[in-house]
Amino acid sequence: MKIYKARDYDHVSQIAANILAAQIILKPDSVLGLATGGTPVGTYKQLIEKYKNGDICFSQVTAINLDEYCGLDSDNDQSYAYFMRDNLFNYININFYYVNIPNGMAKDAKAECERYNEVIAKNPIDIQLLGIGPNGHIGFNEPASELSATSHHVELAPATIEANKRFFENEEQVPRTAYTMGMGQIMHAQKILLVASGAGKADILCQALKGPITTRVPASFLQMHGDVVVVADEAALRKVL
Ligand code: F6R
């Protein structure tokens, strides 16, 4: 595992975007596993800049997002589909045919998970961008006695609802369930890029990177992956380095 200590959030974003840009330059038809949430926003801004400067081209890139809230359609501004358009896809030349996000409005959860499993099976992920939840979740793989290998419908943990309510008007509006890529699918990515910023992530990042490997901290499984790059700022890495 490589750990890059960045000065601050902007520096995290700069390094993470450089890594993703290098991936796209070296393999223009890369499959990018993408994340939402607050942390990757700066990374996406930097990628847009690199695209505008002519440094990278997304025309052959496939995007596969980690997760989506259930009950929100893609035009709802709280959906992850909307987030991705608003923070990245609308500003780059990605082909929307190559964009994949679970359908939060799917009526048949089993069928939707099977569909997403097929998408991932057909498009092996070259690099998976991850944030880390306050409880150690990656994607929406929440702490539990067992973790799922493949895409599944998940009940969000109270800590996740609490953390994500900042994006909604109030806590009641946070969807209670979601679709997420499974742990096995994340672990199958060729390379993993984990970004974290701020003192609020210091405890959980330390547990994930240095603590025991346990289903109670899903991100701790990353210790078993052969090619993980962690890019985090000094505040988030305070207890790790
Ligand atoms: C988002 C996702 C989540 C977030 C995590 C951290 O697609 O899968 O695991 O990465 O909740 O979110 P932020 O970056 O908002 O702290």
Question: Can you describe what's shown?
Answer:
The protein is built from eight helices and ten strands. With 241 residues, it is α/β, with parallel strands linked by helices. The chain has one domain: Rossmann fold (3-Layer(aba) Sandwich). The strands form two sheets. It has a seven-stranded parallel sheet, with helices on both faces. A three-stranded antiparallel sheet has the order 4-8-7, covered by helices on one side. The chain is globular and about 40 Å long. It starts with a strand and ends with a helix. The protein binds fructose -6-phosphate. Fructose -6-phosphate binds next to loops. Fructose -6-phosphate is lined by residues 35-39, 66-67, 131-133, 137-140.
